[in-house]
Amino acid sequence: MAPKVLDLFCGAGGFSLGFHRAGFEVVGAIDYEPAALETFRLHHDTLAVPADLSRLLDDGGPTGEDLLDLVGLTPADVDVVIGGPPCQGYSQSSDRDPDDPINDLVWTFLEVVEAADAHAFAMENVPGLLEHKGGETMAALVECADSLGYNVAYEVLNAADFEVPQNRHRVIFFGVRGGEPTHPEPLGGEPIPVQEALSQVTGELLPDNEWTDHRPTTVEKIAQLNVGESLHGKHRQVRLDPTKPARTITASNRHIHPFEDRELSIRECAVLQSFPPTYDFAGWENRDARTRQVGNAVPPKLAEHIAYALLKSLWEVTDRVPTDSVRTSSKQIAGPTGRLTEREVEATLLRAGGLTWEQVGDEMGITYKTASTHYYRAREKAEMARETFAVFERLNLGERD
Ligand SMILES: C[S@@+](CC[C@H](N)C(=O)[O-])C[C@H]1O[C@@H](n2cnc3c(N)ncnc32)[C@H](O)[C@@H]1O
């Protein structure tokens, strides 16, 4: 049995993707943005429910228990609660209002943790949370989690230290009942530079890879930008350095391509967030909504390392996560994601035989777009299978049977 996760403020599902890859089972997710929920459902086979989590703070409003009920769960169904409450109020990229009610959503997170009686939790936020109200907010969160029986630890991690081609500092707040929460150690070695990450974005058939049609005057201005220079000042739309990890990808800003005179496509931002190249984002009619989903996400690779660290802490304290369960859950990853469908095999073979997308589509009697989707899904599954083996290596569990 894999440890079960409830994802609050799930967005497009970056946090959940990392936990899924590390062998957890995501059993429910909540957010209030329809497009983000749609994206989540495209990639996670779990109940993702629309709900305004701020209502938990209303006098006489719904409770944490009501919320679990809404997702069809009881405390027995949830081992771990994860979530990235919105960070606008704490973020350095917004004009911070210390009393913005959005800041209170970190408390609804703990309310659901309590209602779920979870073994552990992992909350992600911007480092500004640590400075909010002179550190009082973080101290109060620690005190609250402590009073609920959790051993807690928080640390600022840089995603670039965890296989993400981007400098992105985020505070990760862990709580574990009965065990010691331990953060993942930076992996060491050279971080992944922008040009290496962007080399995965080949071909206009990848989803969300449309380029912005800039006005000629804007293109001229962009052409003048050297690496590190910004189109608008204030760290917005900066020409990226191809040899280094990207600057932070945010919800409302797309940086400038290192070699071309245009802003990054949504796909390029997603790859710099370490999403697989075929992870598509719902909301075709609304580019801002897709940019927001990408920029808001916990990079899946960082999430995966957070999940491994939490798994190890849990392992020591609960029989819900015995060695065998990690084996089983990793098999579950290999099962649905590892096996190729007949169409995926067909598209891959035809494409490998040198046919154009149109020819592949004609051979298969489907559109060229659908043919390319089969092909890219096959590639993604191959990637996931490689990662499943990596789970065993990292957890020293030996060979898969
Ligand atoms: C930082 S993002 C979380 C990203 C997500 N963890 C991921 O990895 O993709 C915050 C999310 O909170 C959602 N949100 C903001 N206010 C909310 C509320 N009152 N109720 C429910 N969801 C809310 C937003 O729609 C957004 O998707």
From TrEMBL:
Top-tier EC class: transferase
Q: What is its EC number?
A: 2.1.1.37
Which Pfam families does the entry link to? Answer: DNA_methylase
Which SUPFAM superfamilies does the entry link to?
A: C-terminal effector domain of the bipartite response regulators (SSF46894), S-adenosyl-L-methionine-dependent methyltransferases (SSF53335)
Q: Does the keyword Membrane apply?
A: no
Gene Ontology molecular function: DNA (cytosine-5-)-methyltransferase activity; DNA binding
Keyword terms, alphabetized: Methyltransferase, S-adenosyl-L-methionine, Transferase
HTH luxR-type domain spans which residues?
337-394
- Superkingdom classification of source: Archaea
Coiled coil location: none
Write out the GO biological process terms: methylation; negative regulation of gene expression via chromosomal CpG island methylation; regulation of DNA-templated transcription
Alphabetical list of PANTHER family matching this protein: CYTOSINE-SPECIFIC METHYLTRANSFERASE (PTHR10629), DNA (CYTOSINE-5)-METHYLTRANSFERASE 1 (PTHR10629:SF52)
UniProt lists the family membership as follows:
Belongs to the class I-like SAM-binding methyltransferase superfamily. C5-methyltransferase family.
Q: What name has this protein been given in UniProt?
A: DNA (cytosine-5-)-methyltransferase
Q: What is the lineage of its organism?
A: Archaea, Methanobacteriati, Methanobacteriota, Stenosarchaea group, Halobacteria
